[in-house]
Amino acid sequence: MSLDAVDYKGFPADKSKTGGWVPATLILGIEIVERLSTMGIAVNLVTYLGGTMHLASSNSANIVTDFMGTSFLLCLLGGFLADSFLGRYKTIALFALIQTLGTGMLTVATTLPQLRPPPCNLNCQPANGFQMGILYLALYLIALGTGGLKSSVSVFGTDQFDEKDDKEKAQMTYFFNRFFFFISLGTLTAVTVLVYIQDEVGRIWAYGVCSLSMFIAIIIFLLGSKRYRYKKSAGSPIVHIFQVIVAAIRKRKLDLPYDAAMLYESTSTPEASRIQHTQEFRILDKAAIVTEGDFEEHASCSAPNPWKLSSVTRVEEVKMMAKLLPIWATTIIFWTTYAQMITFSVEQASTMERTIGNFQIPAGSLTVFFVAAILITLALYDRIIMPLWKKWKGKPGFTNLQRIAIGLVLSVIGMAAAALAEQKRLTVAKSAGRNTSTLPISVFLLIPQFFFVGAGEAFIYTGQLDFFITQSPKGMKTMSTGLFLTTLSLGFFISSFLVSVIKKATKTNATAQGWLADNINYGRLDLFYWLLAALGVINFAIYLNSATWYKPRKPKSPIPNGYGAQDKC
């Protein structure tokens, strides 16, 4: 086992007693329950905000997307705490407890009559500031818990496999797909069982199930403590990045040496951990130029001031993170598309015929087709596509960049399908009467948009997770996972921004409600979907250019020490 993995006592980890699929499964369990809680709340929150809190449809959609966006944005905070102070294990346990507290408070907020406005009579009175404040507090406690937990779960799961062992490395390749498959099962339970309980039994029971499930998952997670492998923290990667940038700025006027071997490489960095010098972003190489005053004398040794001098390995780590940014930026628009599946698509469903016999499908449960598409796609990919691709190309499936590309294409098709479905729905609304509560059109018309975007998520989520974990420096994997999850965050925030801008720009006068009317039967949601499809096409073209530019890092080779001999601490 590699020296950077230890057991719960801090001793070098024993492969026969730690790591592997059993502890990885225990870690998966807590993520399944997190997805159950977060998605169970998010997919049906828009109906609660509109039907119970009496908010406008666009405001309700923005509250949901802001909640989800904040959840994923806080992954950066969780990653920072995990890398700098707590470690991944403690970060997961702490933030899971915070999420449990948040779901408990949401149970209270949606149960007490004082915390919601009275039912509509002639006029609907929207929720007041105090009522919304309590709801926001509960939601953002959940967001904080989700963010801190998600940043560490997938990386802590991969920590249970040794990349230097061919057998365990192969297991880790399958871990990404199975990780997403099982958390999608959590989502499936959320959009079927939990949404049904919310609508037919009561939100107090549904949210109570969320709190209790997370509490049980925490206990199970803690029971596996002796079986986990723990990776030693290399310090805060954010601080390391700023140190390289500051050192490079200080030496921006210096000329780079003609030979990269003259750049500084610390002798304290193990040979196996050193990274070969590359030619990209050469401005950062200036941080590794040795000048007078870069070293500080201590009691019996001299060591570089990290804000003045960085090793080649440290500089290359920052370059690796910088190279991820174009791919990061071009995956954001997918999650803007995804946001429509849990907001406006649910509102579409609420206006359509949803009965099967005597049973009425809850509007929020239509996302079951979305989750089903994810599960079917992952199963087909894992059992059919990967084996066939391995026989044909000799590789276990598509590369991570290829999977991302497929996901982007499917999202564009999904938005086009959504626009066509909405055009049909609006035609029926116009003929049946725009104030008709249930339009004579089947809700199953929405299946294609859920299917295409769901299949797209199956490819893009696993592709992004694989890309950001495997292509980031070893000491920055938690932060890299947080960076990946911020694409989800920014996607939701961009959705909120677009909704606000489109609503304002298309509302031409006091009577015309624009594309995104309070009652979607009076709006032109189809044009909003076409706009997202067009943005997706433009984004895909940019992505192809970025993916072509990106070059995976070559295998390591021996690295010259440069001036490393001066580092004697």
Question: What report would you give on this structure?
Answer:
There is one protein chain. The radius of gyration is 26 Å and the shape is globular. α5 (166-201) packs antiparallel against α13. The protein has 569 residues and is mainly alpha-helical. Residues 557-566 have low confidence and may be disordered. It is built from 15 helices and eight strands. The chain folds into three domains: 1-233, Growth Hormone, Chain: A (Up-down Bundle); 242-317 and 559-566, no CATH class; 323-558, MFS general substrate transporter like domains (Growth Hormone, Chain: A). One of its GO terms (molecular function) is transmembrane transporter activity.
Q: Helix share of residues?
A: 55-70%
Instruction: Report the radius of gyration as a whole number of Å.
Output: 26 Å
CATH class of the largest domain: Mainly Alpha
Could you give the order of strands across the largest sheet? 1-2
Number of helices: 15
Q: What oligomeric assembly is this protein in?
A: single chain
Low-confidence stretches: 557-566
Number of DSSP-assigned strands: 8
Please write the string of helix (H) and strand (E) elements: EHHHHHHEHEEHHHEEEHHEHHH
Q: What is the rounded distance between the termini?
A: 27 Å
Mean pLDDT: 84
| Main pleated-sheet profile | 2 strands, antiparallel
Pfam family, one: PTR2
Membrane topology: Multi-pass membrane protein
Subcellular location: Membrane
Family: Belongs to the major facilitator superfamily. Proton-dependent oligopeptide transporter (POT/PTR) (TC 2.A.17) family. Belongs to the major facilitator superfamily. Phosphate:H(+) symporter (TC 2.A.1.9) family.
